[in-house]
Specification:
With 198 residues, the chain is an alpha/beta fold. The protein has 9 helices and 8 strands.
């Protein structure tokens, strides 16, 4: 192993914990998944704990089976999240709820995860199998450039100022309206409204 592949963290007690490059590789993989242009949907069946939940949270939407269990139980082992879980969990559920999950290491049921907005849909296997194609179809009906631009804006919203978000939103809107396909969609929409009034 090369020295640049090791991160050494020194703690006040004098202890030293050495992480190999697998943590850094995990960040690379999770960040690549997080930055894909199309929306990515995680399907959670069974347990999504620690790194498993961190992986699910890199996705844009999370669907979970009714028997799914989710949590960040690292604190029970004296550890913390290693792959962006602190940021992603707090972004999804807010400070108080996220901190409670971190500090207690509690594992929660899928319905509770839905109630705190950690997951976006909970159902039986058959309900999930019906929901996912419907969701995909709804997303695919939309303009692909608009969806990818909106996803980029949402993902960037926490790292830029409000003023920057206005500028980026206007630029993304211009990119979308410059497309022939978008113009055709808008024209068809306006025509249908005119017929309904007419």
């Amino acid at each position: 192993m090369k020295s640049d592949q090791i991160v050494v963290a020194v703690f006040p007690s004098g202890g030293c914990l050495v992480y190999s490059d697998w943590i850094q590789k995990g960040h690379v993989v999770f960040n690549q998944l997080d930055s894909l242009p199309p929306p990515v949907i995680a399907k959670v069946e069974g347990y999504a704990l620690g790194g498993g939940l961190e992986l699910a949270m890199t996705c844009d939407l999370i669907v979970a089976s009714r028997d799914a269990k989710l949590g960040q139980p690292e604190a029970n082992l004296g550890l913390i999240t290693g792959w962006g879980g602190t940021f992603r969990l707090l972004t999804r559920v807010g400070g108080g709820k996220g901190q409670k999950l971190f500090f207690t290491g509690k594992i929660i049921e899928a319905e509770t995860a839905y109630a705190i907005r950690l997951v976006d849909f909970v159902g039986s296997q058959s309900e999930i199998e019906a929901y996912l194609p419907s969701l995909r179809e709804d997303v695919c009906k939309c303009g692909p450039v608009a969806v990818s631009q909106m996803l980029r804006l949402v993902n960037n919203s926490l790292s830029i100022t409000v003023q920057q978000s206005y500028v980026e939103g206007a630029a993304a809107s211009c990119r979308c309206t410059s497309l022939d396909r978008t113009r055709s969609r808008v024209a068809a929409f306006l025509e249908s409204r005119q017929r309904k009034r007419g």
